[in-house]
Write a structure and sequence with these properties.
- Helices cover 41% and strands 19% of the residues.
- It has 14 helices and 16 strands.
- The longest helix is centred in the first third of the chain and has 33 residues.
- It starts with a helix and ends with a helix.
Length: 471
């Protein structure tokens, strides 16, 4: 079911590309009080909204749309980018007539679509309960501020809100039982994990029950028929998908990779669910700064985005992703840091492997970079505070003026290792992806990469985490 937050999300306006579903669909609307001279009709796909078409509205509030190739799912009517209401397209070949007041769910009806009649009644009840949740949430916020988050004062309101959420859940259960053949009922059921046996409880003695977790992992997708691609065409399935990984899969790259492969294996290759899952993970981890995100991104590209095996993505996108994965490979999280081949300010060759330390900070910067010079004092002080715990520092200049750099470092009186390339070739820059300076890596005692591209303002907290893990 859509959450309150989802209903407030701005519409993503984009032209929807439809699958090969054939057949004519006709939508006829007779709506009083329509607030614009044209109506926007759109569809949902995996939580996103797409524009199907725009049609003129006459003075009596009538407008129609005839279109080939629309897929069954949840659709919406909007005016001036404000979503007014949702409706159902149960079949790829259908004629839907909807009448009523454009701004009032309670007055909507569909004379030739029993599925929409049932859907409108469900949404009317659901929105009525959500209105109560919004009102009580506002009261909760006021009481929280007035009492400085007094748990005793907030508990009654919290219980009311929880009770309303249970009402929505009960409403969905009844709808699923009452209309088992309706597409919307199938959608609601597809985002409900099977209930574990009553003998299994989520927690034992205040700790998570591993048996309960394993049961959920094994049965989470039991109600999702990955062959029925219409189940993806709504506003809430993506949240159900994300919940599986956010709640039940440890935030460890190897665990995520295994879970991703196991889920995608259940989906028909190159089908709608398959495409959604692959896109979701590539987009999530391509730009993420989370530890190990690069490992997951490269795995997705290598396993699922081969040019000859991915007909649903254009060659330019596939080539870009493969190129980016190749850039990441030399410095993947968990791999050993590549050799630097640099010299210190005295001209002596430096070998990263000779640094004996529990942790090593590797900082790439330029004396000519204004931002670097602003944050380097804080970076250096953070290292000074941490070196008593066995942290060594290696600062690498990307400046090509070696002699100027020598003079600069002598003025700084830095006590960490200072390095640069006398030949000014700076071949390390491509390997270590030193764009957007300063770039900070954290290495373990064997010089394997623990973290990369750490933000200067987060460095102190990151070091605390890893130093605590060493205790």
């Amino acid at each position: 079911m859509s959450s309150i937050r989802c209903w407030k999300t701005l519409i993503l306006w984009s032209v929807c590309t439809f699958a090969s579903a054939q057949g004519m669909v006709q939508f006829h609307f007779h709506l009083t009080g329509f607030p614009a001279k044209s109506a926007l009709i759109g569809c949902y796909k995996a939580g996103e909204t797409y524009l199907v078409d725009s049609v003129a509205v006459d003075e009596s509030g009538h407008f129609s749309l005839r279109k080939n190739g629309l897929e069954p799912g949840v659709f919406f009517v909007a005016a001036d980018k404000s979503r007014l209401f949702n409706f159902m397209l149960p079949k790829a070949v259908d004629t839907i007539t909807i009448s009523g007041n454009a701004s009032d769910w309670a007055g909507l009806s569909s004379s030739n679509s029993p599925e929409n009649e049932a859907f409108f009644r469900f949404e009317q009840q659901r929105q009525g309960i959500e209105a109560k949740i919004v009102a009580r949430q506002s009261m909760y916020d006021l009481v929280s501020e007035a009492t400085k988050q007094d748990a005793k004062a907030l508990e009654p309101i919290k219980k009311e809100i929880d009770g309303y959420f249970r009402q929505i859940d009960s409403l969905a259960r009844v709808f699923i039982v009452q209309y088992p053949t309706h597409l919307y009922a199938k959608m609601l059921k597809s985002v409900r994990p099977p209930e574990p046996p009553k003998s299994l409880v989520p927690a034992l003695k205040g700790k998570s029950n591993p048996v309960y977790r394993r049961w959920v992992l094994r049965h989470y997708w039991d109600h999702t028929d990955f062959k029925d691609e219409s189940l993806l065409n709504n506003q809430f399935w993506s949240a159900f998908f994300d919940k599986y990984f956010d709640r039940y899969i440890p935030a460890i790259p190897d665990s995520i990779v295994v879970a991703v492969d196991e889920v995608i294996k259940q989906m028909p290759p190159n089908g709608a669910f398959y495409q959604f899952a692959v896109r979701r993970f590539v987009q999530s981890f391509e730009m993420s700064d989370a530890p190990g995100a690069d490992v997951i991104f490269v795995h997705m590209v290598d396993k699922y985005l081969k040019i000859k095996e991915t007909p649903w993505l254009d060659i330019a996108t596939l080539t870009r992703l493969e190129y980016k994965a190749d850039l990441f490979r030399p410095v993947l999280t968990g791999k050993k840091a590549p050799p630097l081949g640099l010299s210190d300010e005295e001209g002596r060759a430096f070998d990263l492997d000779t640094v004996s330390a529990k942790l090593t900070l590797l900082i790439f910067y330029s004396p000519l970079c204004h931002h670097c010079m602003e944050v380097m004092p804080d970076i250096y002080q953070t290292w000074l505070d941490a070196r008593v715990f066995g942290v060594k520092g290696v600062a690498v200049s990307v400046d090509e003026q070696y002699r100027n750099w020598q003079q600069f470092t002598r003025q700084q009186h830095w006590e960490w290792h200072n390095l640069a390339d006398p030949s000014a070739k700076n071949e390390f820059e491509k390997q270590y992806l030193t764009n957007n300076l300063p770039v900070i890596y954290l290495l373990d005692k064997d010089k394997h990469i623990l973290r990369k591209r750490i933000k200067p303002e987060e460095l102190r907290d990151v070091l605390k985490i890893y130093l605590n893990n060493l205790k």
